[in-house]
Amino acid sequence: xxxxxILETQNLRREFGALVAVDNVSLKVKAGSLHSIIGPNxxxxxxxxxxxxxxxxxxxxxxxxxxxxxxxxxLHKTAHLGIGRSFxxxxxxxxLTVLENIRLAAQALGKDSFRLFRSYxxxxxxxxxxxxxxxxxxxxxxxxxxxRTLPHGAQRKLELxxxxxxxxxxxxxxxxxxxxxxxxxxxxxxxxQRIQEAGHKTVMLVEHNMNVVMSVSDTITVMHHGAVLAxxxxxxxxxxxxxxxxxxxxxYEDTAVTP
Amino acid sequence: xxxxxxxxxxxxxxxxxxxxxxxxxxxLLILLIAFPFLLALSEGQSIGDVLANEAGNAKFMQGLxxxxxxxxxxxxxxxxILGVTGLLSFGHAMFFAAGAYFTGIAFKNLGWGxxxxxxxxxxxxxxxxxxxxxxxPRVKGITFALVTLGLASVFHIVVxxxxxxxxxxxxxxxxxxxxxxxxxxxxxxFQLYLLTLLATFLVYLIYRRFVDSxxxxxxIAIRENEGRALMLGYNTFLFKLVALVVAxxxxxxxxxxxxxxxxxxxxxxxxxxxxxxxxxxxxxxGVGTLSGALVGAAVFRLLEFFLDRWFGNAANFxxxxxxxxxxxxLPYGIVGTWxxxxxxxxxxxxxxxxxxGLGKKETGD
Lengths: 259, 365
Known about the structure:
The complex is a heterodimer. By secondary structure, chain A is of the alpha/beta class. Chain A folds into two domains: 1-82 and 168-259, P-loop containing nucleotide triphosphate hydrolases (Rossmann fold); 92-167, no CATH class.
């Protein structure tokens, strides 16, 4: 179904003391689209993501998945609903091999995790899946290396692989290119786009670098000081004066006097 | 490349491969079974003397090794929760002591047989693991350590209290336990030796399998990065609870053998010192390696015994010196360092100098 709304937030709000990190954000994400959230540093993008994935509870508001309220669900249950989430800071199992990192991710949604006294080798489907994913993200040659020994760019790919392994419908990617050498960025973005188009997945992407998302996004939401500043297609966003001002810093200066 | 690697890692191991991979372990088992006989023969006793449990050095050394086996089972259980799952518990002695006391009370006060007692121990093990589990979702890291320390301290105080003296013998300890004939450490020493030896190997093999199972792999993932495991969709609380239950079942088994072998239960086995013993053993052997618990238990007990025999009062001082040396030169324990092939004398010397305040400031480690 095209244009079906898969993920929706209603007046989502999160306060940290006096700071309103996310200010009544209502957002609709279309199924199968690549929806980017951009905004300057401190705009509340990551907090908004944490609310979506259930890492932190909202002060007010709701998160709906296909119309069903998932706001207060325990963290480990969101993955079972087909939501995979990556982090801005690389978040992997450092001493385990790349293969084992992804195999564990694949095993997570299977029904064999409480088999105490059979070898993991008796369940090869997770390992097979891990090899598929490693081929997809280009980590086959690094499969047997401990994850912590990988260079940063490869760790970002591993992070992506760990989300892909259970084949989620929705991917929440928090600055997947963070800390990457700029020449590696287009390659990773192309990979994300390929995954989204080939797998008919819904991808939500947080970025603070506007240029990165312009070419790949279907919809862009611009956040500023916790609230939605603008939303639209990449063309609309790049033509939007308010957005330009936000990025040039004028809005910052205006509000900096009254924090 | 991909398919060959995938085939290799997904290959099922046949029985023949298993024998081949575990040659060393099986050799050790056979050697340990033969050990009392070899020792007896070298001392002029006959094989029949060992089977008849005649007094002598062979019988004595079996007793010492039984203590090693019991310590090994106990340390394995601690390695499962600390080394594999990454739960720092300071109350592990309680897991052992509850088994030891329950066994003593079952034999002495209740007149139970070994089978009935073991069944009772299963209940005890599950109940105490659940008790520790109750606090699991609420506290983490050092707070979990302190809460478990608190729980174990309560247990320690209760078994020492005079109100309980009819059951636990209060601060004197539980005495006058008579183990069933076929398990009696005086009249059936070789049988008990074989039983504890086989139990140790069995527990070790089961643990190795557990660590390799889908569940055990998740436990390792929790040790590595619990938040990530949660995000992947694992209910980490349940996995930690499983690890606690398995460890508790193992520790009460060690306590069971302890009571049979001693055959008294001192309140010391419920103290923090007994938890530290487990910690020390896996530090010596290598945290999270499993086989390190076996090596560590042997080093721990035999060193203590022989240093005491040779040096008397100076033994504790030497023991401390040996432990410090191990920590300085083998920071990953004996097995851990062996596996990593990372014995670095220069680094060890540098650490020693630093400890003594003689070295120059070390940059990094």
